[in-house]
Amino acid sequence: RQHAQWLTGSIQSANIQNFLKMETQSNVASNGEIQQQQQQTQPLTSADTTKERIKREASWPFVLFYIHLNILGLYGIFIMFTNASFLTILFTFALTFLGILGATAGAHRLWAHQTYTASTSLRVFLMLCQTIAGQGPIYRWVQTHRLHHQKFRQEVDPFYSARGFMAAQVNAQIMSYTREQQQLLSQVDMSDIEQDKVVMFQKKYYWVLYFFLHVLLPINAPLEYWGDSIAAATFVAFSLRYLIVLNVCWLINSAHFIWGLDKNFKPSDSNSVFFITKSYWPQYHYLLPNDYQSGEFGDYGSDFVTAMIRVFAALDMATDLRTISSVAVRKGLTTAVETGRPIVECIQEHATEEMNEMPKNHFLNRDRFM
Question: Domain segments of the chain: what residues?
Fold first, then answer.
């Protein structure tokens, strides 16, 4: 039983739904003033109250780059079936896997949400994988994603999705940030990231690493080691791979649009994303983002990224895997309804008590702690 789905069932009840609305309203401080809850905990069912639209200008270098990348990537599909060796195809899929792993297990779950603690060797490995993905420095990725959570479903959200899935998936990537967004980005707390030497090393030497790992390695290896054609190396191992990795990784910030809970927004049963399993994942992830089992693409506890994190944990490369069981969620919801306290605060309170009692190898018995 996945507690993300259980949480959805609870949301459907009147008491919990009313309380979730309370979560997005102001809380009474000790001095009697009203303080706004963080937008990171705003549920998907709430209505967007933003009245004014922030106009973002197109970044034409990015527009032209992505147009050419799509053309070259689509041509790479033709080359893959007509003029590419099996080794090049296998190599392309391997680099694609590593790039997605670096963006999901690394930039997203490790650095953005701190769902687990990684050893230095694992952090270096994930940093290299994230560089292969070609999505920019980890520092910038985390900064943007944290702003996305803090300002979720507001116009200043870099991946604001109320205009449609394509706006969140594609348009957000080719638009420059407004002055207000730049100011908000500078206010995002990055103190933990700035203390990570691996991330700061990548930030300093990103374009050097980018050239060798993202550009030179995919093109040179097929030519140098198994004598494939320049077309296969350029259009398959580089262009097609890059196109796939970018679109999959962009879903990290736009997938909530696909699995929205609000029928007036975008119901999950009217959308399909091919191989991606649908669930009510976003409601859970945006309330409680620091659960290592919360997948990027609608899964909970059963996706390949979660499996890889468990493998890293079994190898003692990942520790302190943070998770929240259905029992803790149930207790937290009950406490929130009974006391009127913020729902996230109540769930985290019970989750902390539970984590203190969990064995360190709880990831080996995942069914018990779901």
Answer: 3-23+57-369
CA distance 328 to 310: 21
Q: Tell me the per-residue pLDDT of 82-91, one tens digit each, with 9 for 90 and over.
A: 999 999 999 9
42: Cα within 13 Å, side-chain hemisphere? 22
Q: Is 309 exposed, middle or buried (0-12, 13-18, 19+ CB in 10 A)?
A: buried
Q: From CA 258, how far away is CA 267, in angstroms rounded?
A: 8
pLDDT digits (tens, 9 = 90+) for 180-205: 999 999 999 999 999 999 999 999 99
pTM: 0.78
Evaluate whether 305 touches 104 at the Cβ level (below 8 Å). Answer: yes
| Of 325, 309, 359, nearest in space to 106 by CA | 309
Instruction: Give the sign of the dihedral formed by CA 152, CA 155, CA 156, CA 157.
Output: positive
Q: What backbone torsions phi and psi does residue 34 show, to the nearest 5 degrees? A: -100, 130
CB atoms within 10 A of CB 370: 19
pLDDT of residue 278: 31
Q: Report how far residue 91's alpha carbon sits from residue 103's, in angstroms, rounded to the nearest whole number.
A: 19
- Provide the CB-side half-sphere exposure for 273 (13 A, CA): 19
- Helix (H) or strand (E) segment spanning residue 34: strand 34-35
- Beta-carbon contacts of 356 under 8 Å, excluding residues fewer than 6 positions away, are none
